[in-house]
Amino acid sequence: MDEFISEDDLKSFDGWLRYQAIDATAITPEELATWRRIFEEARQRSAVNPKVGLMKL
Length: 57
Description:
Largest sheet: none
Number of helices: 2
Order of helices and strands: HH
Oligomer: single chain
Strand content: under 5%
Number of strands: 0
Shape: flat
Radius of gyration: 14 Å
């Protein structure tokens, strides 16, 4: 069974890699640097766009 990944996990690089199904120990340092850059860019885009709000049912 896969481990649960919470929204808080997605805020960390390691948690985000798990969500992407990337094993950090199995890739080269250059590939890891590329994934880190992608993560940082995604975090910056996320910070620029405000959250819409909470869903009310």
